[in-house]
Amino acid sequence: MELGEELTIGGARQAYFNQNQPRSRFLFQCSSPECRALKVVPKITAVNYYIHPTEKARVKSPHYKDNEHYDHHAECEWMLPDEDEGSDAPLPGETELQTRTRLAKRQLTSVIDIFVPPTQPEQPVVRPPRAAPGDEDEAGAIRRRGGGGAEGTRSDRKHRSGDLRELVDYYHDTREALKDLFPEVTINVTGRGEIPLRSYFKKVAWARPDTAGYVYNGGGRIEPREGAGFVFNFYDKVADKDASLQVSDEVMTQHRSRRYVNELLDQARLVRYFTFYFLGTFTYHEASDTMVAQVTDLRCLAIDLGPLRS
Ligand SMILES: [Zn+2]
């Protein structure tokens, strides 16, 4: 409410940490057009967006939750049944393993079906036009066509995200909750198609030079910083060479999430290591005889804090 913006939970976390200290938490309201027209717009609870992702806090990834003290409009998506209508029976064409996986995913607080890497142009989010009074039939027709037919609206029952931070949370939640079914979970990555979620994430140790299309991840430390930018050294080698990730001064002074990233990097003395996740490539750098990945868009980077130093 304070920002007057519609935010994903990842966007809310970023906006929270972009504030100067002392930071204040935000109020959240339902964003569905039906609920926004109500006299009392229902509040939504945002869980854990004001804490940093650490390995310990992972079980409770940030998510939005219905606030039971408020009533939503009957047509609001919070009131809609699940896509599979709560059925435990196999859907047409589903294998037994797929049914078990679908049912197991219900215990997750959020699901991402489609991931649009920040480097891919995102489909604009088009909202259905607000219904004028006495214009109910038309509004109903628009709803039945699926929210104006635009991809990416929330009435599109596939859950789409372009937020790497949310994808990383989803990856860890799913791996933890689904256990032996985790290899069955797939995700549609724009530009790649439907792939196992597991195979989209690759340890830095297994990275191949000049190869994009993965969320590379690995632990390491940042070098003492001189300017606004930074260098992160991975513990693991890439193709037998020392590997680092570099973000230039220019990127760190221009990008809107720089404060959020700085806030995380400032914890370097408190934690034993960071885990970095990024979309990009490692390229051989001859002068230093190392593998270097450059991140020019901070949306392609997510950082977990490692355990605290004792
Ligand atoms: Zn609502």
TrEMBL record:
Bias kind Pro residues: ranges: 119-131
Domain of life from the UniProt record: Bacteria
Region annotation Disordered: where it falls in the sequence: 119-160
Record's protein name: ATPase
Species of origin: Pseudomonas gessardii
